[in-house]
Amino acid sequence: MRIALSFLLVASVVIFVLTFMPKGFSESSDNLAAVAFQIISDGDSIMEVEEIPTQGPKASILFVGDIMLGRDIESKRDKRGGDYPFGNVTAEFDKYDLVFGNLEGPILSDHKKTQAGSMSFSFDESAAESLSKAGVDIVSLSNNHTADQGQSGLIETINFLTDQSVLPSGHPNVIRREDVTYANLNGYQIVFVSLNFTYGYGGLDSAASLVRELRGDSQEAFLVVSVHWGDEYQTKSNARQREAARLLIDNGVDLIIGSHPHVVQEMETYKSKLIFYSLGNFIFDQYFSADTQKGLAVGIEIEGERVTVRPISVEIVQGQPRFVNN
User: Fold this and answer.
1) What's residue 205's pLDDT?
2) How would you classify residue 321: left for phi > 0, otherwise alpha for psi between -120 and 50, otherwise beta?
3) What pLDDT, on a 0 to 100 scale, did the predictor assign at position 53?
4) Which residues cross the membrane (predicted)?
5) Residue 55 half-sphere exposure, CB side, CA atoms within 13 Å?
6) CA 274 – CA 27 distance, rounded (Å)
7) What does the buried/exposed string (b/e) look like for 197-222 if buried means 16 or more CB atoms within 10 Å of the residue's CB?
8) CB 266 within 8 A of CB 296
9) Are 214 and 129 in contact (CB under 8 A)?
10) Residue 62 CB: number of other CB atoms within 10 A?
């Protein structure tokens, strides 16, 4: 039987709401009856709106935001070691069966350092090893920077990642079934679809068709969409994001994780499914505002028919993230 996807949010989300969501938690007005979780503030307890069976093994995934290992981050890696950006987070990564992030740029053998202020990124080949050593398992390539160095750079990126056992997900320019990534975690099938809508939503119907096809393949799979979209530096999603999210969920998606704005955007429920419109930055050298030096990580645990969701605040200090309310 397909996971019922009645989400439970632990109390730490209240801190996230107060910090990042000035307009508050949003529940889609046409689906209030379907919401199966509630934000609470009584310690660390979990309040269940309905009784959810909890039998069988557990599987856990941690989602983090934008990872950019060039420009000043590269300078810091050169001075302090390639693993410097991940120094404060690997212990938390180790608690999860799988870690997923958005890789904002290509990895090249003939790498030339990206100059300060440049928006055309590239990372040296040690970046793939650093991701792997830190415990990152899957990275989305569906964004507006993975193709900064052309098709050859994209191919090299895929090769460097797979050589280090980091799985790529998606493509920066096309939507194809062959770019879907699969994981089997303790008997649970997890399907990752990565999409890039930063160039417009012309591919939205194709994306909806793809997720509908994947849902038709398996009613039991947990189907996650990672999507690059929205307006940079805006803490509120736009109408196109919200329309796209609803269409994707209508066609079978269980969880949506957004990126691209470089700041945290709101969280919403629709048909009892969660939408995180933007996790913001995770590793980035955007030191010019407080919002770009905050992020959000999302931990999920699947146990039988219950999914527990733990939003975790992230602070970025000199390009190095740390979790601040776990």
Assistant:
1) 98
2) beta
3) 55
4) none
5) 3
6) 10
7) bbeeeebbeebbebbeebbeeeeebb
8) no
9) no
10) 24
* Token pair listed for 174: 């096309």
> Whole-angstrom Cα distance, residue 293 to residue 289?
7
Residues in the chain: 326
Checking if the pLDDT of 42 tops 50, the result is no
Who's near 169: CB < 8 A, 6+ residues apart? 100, 138, 139, 140, 141, 142, 179, 180, 181, 192, 193, 194, 226
Tell whether the model's pLDDT for residue 27 goes beyond 70.
Answer: no
Q: Please give the structure tokens belonging to residue 67.
A: 């990872």
* Paired sense of beta strands 267-270 and 255-259, if any: unpaired
Distance in angstroms (rounded) separating the CA atoms of residues 257 and 46: 23
Residue 241 to residue 260: CA distance in whole angstroms: 12
Instruction: Find residue 175's DSSP bridge partners.
Output: none
User: What are the strands, taking DSSP E only, across 10-135?
Assistant: 26-27, 58-67, 98-103, 107-108, 123-124
Q: Using alpha carbons only, what angle is made at residue 243 by residues 256 and 102, rounded to the nearest 5 degrees? A: 35
Q: Which domains does the chain have, with CATH numbers?
A: 6-325 (3.60.21.10)
Reduced to 3 states, what is the DSSP secondary structure of residue 92? helix
Q: Label residue 22 exposed, middle or buried (CB < 10 Å: 0-12, 13-18, 19+).
A: exposed
At 177-209, the pLDDT tens digits run 999 999 999 999 999 999 999 999 999 999 999
What whole-number distance in Å separates Cα of residue 305 and Cα of residue 282? 30
Whether 226 and 235 have beta carbons less than 8 Å apart is answered as no
pLDDT tens for residues 230-265?
999 999 999 999 999 999 999 999 999 999 999 999
Alpha-carbon distances of 183 from 33, 51, 59, 85, 169, rounded to whole Å: 32, 28, 11, 26, 11
Q: Is the dihedral of CA 63, 10, 31, 263 positive or negative?
A: negative
Dihedral sign, Cα of residue 96, residue 54, residue 29, residue 211: positive
User: What does the DSSP 8-state code read for residue 13?
Assistant: H
